[in-house]
Amino acid sequence: MIVLRDVEKIYHRGSEELHALRGLDLDVGRGEFISIVGPSGAGKSSLLHILGCLDMPTRGTVQFDQVNVEHMSERQLDAVRRDKIGFVFQQFYLMPGLSVFDNVALPKIFGRQKIHKDRIGALIDLVGLKNRMTHFPNQLSGGEMQRVAIARALANDPEIVLADEPTGNLDSENSEKIFGLLKSLHTKGYTIVMVTHNHDLAKRADRVITIRDGRIP
Amino acid sequence: MVFLRLALANLRRHRTRSLLALFGIATSVAVLFSILSFNRGFEKGLAKELERTGIHFMVVPSGCPHEVASLVLHGSIIPKFLDLSVMDTIRNLDGIAFASPILVAQLPNPHKGRVDLAYGIEMFRVRDIKPHWQIAGSIPDDEDEIILGAEIAEHQGLKTGDTLAYPDINVTFRVAGILKKTGSQDDAFMYIPVKTAQDVFKKPSGATAIGVKVIDPALLTRTTDELSEKVPGIQIVTMNQVMHSISSLAASAKVLSLSIAIIAVIVSAVGVMNAMLMAVFERSQEIGMMRAIGASRTDIFRIILHEGIVLTLGGGFFGIVAAAAGSDLIGLFVRKAMPYAPASGMARFDAGIAAASLLFVALVGVLSGLYPAWKASKITPIEAIRG
Question: The whole model's pTM is what?
Answer without folding.
Answer: 0.68
